[in-house]
Amino acid sequence: MKFLVISILAALTISPAIDASESDSLEKLLARTPVYDLTVLLKPDSHQMELTGTVILPPSDKPRSVIELNLSELMKQFHAEIIEPAESAGTPEIVKGAKQDSTEHFVRWQLHPKRAIAANKPVKLRFSYNGGEGTGFVFYIGPEGSFAGGSNAAWYPQWDENSGTGIGLLKFSIPLDYKVLATGKSLGTASEEAQGNFVFKNDVPSQFSFAAGKYTVLRRDGVVPMRAYLLHPRKNIDDYLVGSSKVLAVLSKEFGPYPYGEFAIAEVPTQQALKAGFSGASFNGFMLSNEEFLDQPFNLAYYGHEIGHQWWGNAVLHAEEPRGDYMLDEAMAQFGSLRVVEAVDGPAAAEEYRRTGYPDYSPTQCGYGYLRSVKAGRDHALGNLPDDPNSHELADSKGFLVWDLLARTVGPERFSQALHDVTQKYRFRSIRWEEFLAAIQSVSKEDLSWFFSQWLERKGAPDWQITWKQEGGQVRGEITQAAPFYRAQVQVEIVGPDGQNSEHTLDVNDAKTAFDWPASFHVQSVVVDPHYYVLHWVPNDVFALKREN
Prior knowledge:
The chain is α+β, with helices and mostly antiparallel strands and about 550 residues long. Helices cover about 30% and strands about 30% of the residues. The protein is elongated and about 95 Å long.
């Protein structure tokens, strides 16, 4: 089965406690964040939404003669009014800006106030619009089930400088038999929600997303309360709640405390989701999964990946720079998925995942998948991946194996501690690539520049060749490789015909690395890296054999 996994840098479901040491920086961040008060009227039967609201934009250090915002091209009849400052109040001239990229599916609206807004003054806007009849990327309004992701579908006014993030209120009015799951802490009472009125409050910078439908809501208590929003009843949903709880437990240990108060899975209609370009999408505090996936058994690797985005891509954002793109969200979420498989299913399942993928998960997101990409000419250095779909695949095939190897190189406990530090220090804010690498270096006992250079700054993987012979009770041989040489500490297994074996550790670095080890049995084979801890070239027949087993 092919899974299309999309990371959505979306909105927050529950506001976590903030450490005192972080409060100053968070306060500064909040001061630079737009404050929204949105009212959304959903009309699923007519595939429409109507939205009214206000937003307070933070002060600029320069006078503003134009205010530019982004809004989905699916929205129409856009109107705006400047409320504050008083000297600039009134209806501005509204101009449709030119697209900066042909792939953009939003309109760059330009608001020209009658009088320029002075420096260091906030701006309060009132706006209204309607639309939503079409399908966009992670956007659909309809009776089968509605959904909107804030990072790809600008269904509410967004500003480039804030990447669409905001704080404030989301208020929904929907048909009486519908329920809404959205970013922020739910403030509505049961009686209000029974009347179709839902309110969510966002206290930290978030990209706003929601799902709405004729949901039945199931709950499971725990350290992280779980909810399932179902469009159709299904017998296996308890497996999902239990499985997600296990995933959260492992990832909280690996990455740090879960950033939100609850986690939820919301079902979305398969046909509409696929038309909207996704099968699964991770938002802050919840995720969407199409009904076809939910009909299948709980897949540990898939949900490990999607829940991993709660930390990487949602709570911790990658800075707007080419360096580190995909590696600090997709590859980290996939690394979390591998950690979950290793902890829950065991080392053998993790080895299979590294080599040829996890059962019923993507067959390309593994070592075998990466090497096939190389043969197809689709390789690129991980540290500077371009913004294209192939980079997504490289991060989820080679990238997560590199993070796994880095953890083994630094030491799993030290690596996890560095990730804890990052997820606490950079919660709800962006981290630069060099800052992340520096955080890993800070916990390492050795200089990691060699690791970063060979695994992040150049393409490819090791291609080791081994020759050996047995002379009495000794096995002698060498491992050779062509330039550029890879440095690695690898296991080498000596295997006998009747199951005898012994393992040795060898530091490989140069063109030739010799070894000489005792062997008290007849040696049938000598295998480099038998558990595939290091991504390297392996003959296709070996991969095929592993896949069959």
